[in-house]
């Protein structure tokens, strides 16, 4: 009997730590199930990881059946590729990628049966349709955020958007089905805070989310007890269940500082609040100082990730007041980039001051860690509302900002209301683990995806 080639999937994330890391996790799970994977990074992103991070992609290069390839993002070399230029990046990818993708998936030496594309890459759907292969979208944001993006046109038509300058930010938004009772203007994604309904970013998110219905399926990296009935994630938990013998560190853009673990080892149980604002968010020096005072004055221990590019502008860390520097030496630890999942699992950590990026939120939930949310952009505003109001896993301090508020929130989370938050975080973590373990609903969903991909490889192409 002729030997059947393994199913072959091309996976293409947007170039950002949160997107690449979560899709790499899916790639690892699929290759563990015997599926061949070609994982695409843009050249610019790949070079940054290789140049700055200690282990780059080396762990993934050793996974049999998983190959990494790079493609151009179509932007000139000196383009800044900063978050405020997101629409330029997406437009450029939508022009540059289709011909490359088409060439790749029709290569007769290594035929591709399936594309898994990041949720903002509608161009990939056209390629898949043209060559007659299946495509599904991978959504790197939460289901609640995805649904709110999807409803943007309805909110605009109903006159609830745009948000005007003088607006009461606590006004309820009534045109996102299922969220009528608690979604306020301030909880909408950051790109909704514009005066102009024709704003390019607003239209881009609305357009790309609506176009996702043209894909053959949608993977949402979440779990049922958290967000309803559709899903596969949390992928970090799947990896731990299915490939337990390996450590599953994420790739990043900075060198991982492991010395923080030795510091945590010396701290009392659940005494430390972990502070991180992810890989993209920036803050002013004034905001940094507010956090410093809030943390130091709370008298709790803290481990804070201050990336080399966290502070916007040039004045940076050199002007941090001497008194907070001294107080930090006593009970704080500053690192440039940490092994986050390991930190969250450490017994000394008792809370997470988080920006509510979706990967970090899921990692926190899986670790049973209560959160203080200070969202920055995109889906983070709505995630933080859900953490506080719906899931009861912590406190949302968006748009409230002074050192006393930070100090009070840290003490509420770590001391006064500790038991209450720990209990609900524990319950949610247990529900997540149950659904990812063998026989659980998410375990079965992932098996179904693998089966579907393998079936596609048995089907003749271009039909
Ligand atoms: N992360 C990490 N070390 C750090 C800070 C963050 O490994 O010091 C990882 C974190 O575990 C998460 C990712 O970076 O997987 C950040 O993704 P997220 O979606 O939370 O936020 P984004 O960076 O996209 O804003």
Quick overview of this protein structure:
44% of the residues lie in helices and 13% in strands. The chain has 19 helices and 12 strands.
Describe the protein's architecture and organization.
By secondary structure, the protein is α/β, with parallel strands linked by helices. It folds into two domains: 8-247 and 436-456, Rossmann fold, CATH 3.40.50; 259-416, Glycogen Phosphorylase B (Rossmann fold). Helices cover 44% and strands 13% of the residues. It contains 19 helices and twelve strands. The strands form two sheets. Strands 3-2-1-4-5-6 form a six-stranded parallel sheet, sandwiched between helices. α12 (285-298) packs parallel to α17 (403-416). The chain is globular. The mean pLDDT is 90. Bound molecules: uridine-5'-diphosphate (UDP). Belongs to the UDP-glycosyltransferase family. Pfam families: UDPGT (PF00201). InterPro entries: UDP_glucos_trans. GO terms for molecular function: UDP-glucosyltransferase activity.
Q: Tell me the fraction of residues in β-strands, as a range.
A: 5-15%
CATH superfamily of the largest domain: Glycogen Phosphorylase B
Count of the domains? 2
Distance between the termini: 24 Å
Name of the top-level CATH class of the largest domain: Alpha Beta
Number of strands: 12
Evaluate the radius of gyration: 22 Å
Portion of residues within helices: 40-55%
What is the structural class? alpha/beta
Shape designation: globular
Write the CATH fold name of the largest domain. Answer: Rossmann fold
Residue-averaged pLDDT? 90
């Amino acid at each position: 009997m002729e030997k059947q080639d393994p199913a072959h999937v091309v996976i293409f994330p947007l170039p950002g730590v949160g997107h690449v890391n979560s899709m790499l996790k899916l790639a690892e799970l699929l290759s563990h199930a015997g599926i061949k994977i070609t994982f695409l990074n843009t050249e610019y992103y790949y070079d940054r990881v290789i140049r700055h991070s200690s282990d780059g992609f080396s762990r993934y290069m050793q996974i049999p059946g998983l190959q990494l390839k790079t493609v151009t993002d179509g932007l000139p070399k000196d383009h800044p590729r900063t978050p405020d230029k997101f629409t330029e990046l997406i437009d450029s990818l939508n022009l540059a990628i289709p011909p490359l993708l088409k060439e790749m998936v029709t290569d007769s030496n290594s035929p591709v049966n399936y594309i898994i594309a990041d949720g903002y890459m509608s161009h990939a759907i056209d390629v898949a349709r043209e060559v007659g292969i299946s495509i599904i979208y991978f959504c790197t944001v939460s289901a609640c955020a995805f649904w709110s993006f999807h409803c943007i046109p309805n909110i605009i038509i109903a006159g609830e958007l745009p948000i005007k300058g003088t607006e009461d930010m606590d006004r309820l938004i009534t045109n996102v089905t299922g969220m009528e009772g608690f979604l306020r203007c301030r909880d909408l994604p950051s790109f909704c805070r514009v005066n102009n309904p024709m704003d390019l970013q607003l239209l881009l998110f609305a357009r790309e989310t609506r176009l996702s219905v043209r894909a053959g399926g949608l993977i949402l990296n979440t779990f049922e007890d958290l967000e309803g009935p559709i899903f596969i994630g949390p992928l970090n938990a799947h990896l731990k269940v299915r490939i337990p013998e390996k450590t599953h560190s994420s790739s990043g853009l900075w060198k991982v500082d492991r010395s923080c673990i030795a510091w945590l080892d010396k701290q009392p149980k659940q005494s430390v609040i972990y502070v991180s604002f992810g890989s993209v968010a920036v803050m002013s020096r004034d905001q940094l100082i507010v956090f410093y005072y809030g943390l130091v004055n709370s008298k709790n221990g803290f481990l804070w990730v201050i990336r080399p590019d966290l502070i916007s502008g040039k004045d940076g860390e050199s002007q941090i007041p001497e008194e907070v520097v001294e107080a930090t030496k006593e009970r704080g630890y500053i690192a440039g980039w940490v092994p986050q999942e390991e930190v969250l699992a450490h017994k000394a950590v008792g809370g997470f001051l988080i920006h509510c990026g979706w990967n970090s939120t899921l990692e926190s939930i899986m670790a049973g860690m209560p959160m203080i949310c200070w969202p920055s952009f995109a889906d983070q505003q709505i995630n933080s509302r859900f953490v506080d109001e719906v899931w009861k896993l912590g406190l949302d301090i968006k748009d409230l900002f002074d050192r006393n508020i930070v100090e009070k929130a840290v003490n509420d989370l770590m001391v006064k209301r500790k038991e209450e938050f720990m209990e609900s975080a524990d319950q949610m973590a247990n529900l997540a683990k149950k659904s990812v373990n063998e026989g659980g609903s998410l375990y079965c969903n992932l098996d179904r995806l693998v089966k579907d991909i393998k079936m596609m490889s048995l089907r003749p192409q271009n039909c």
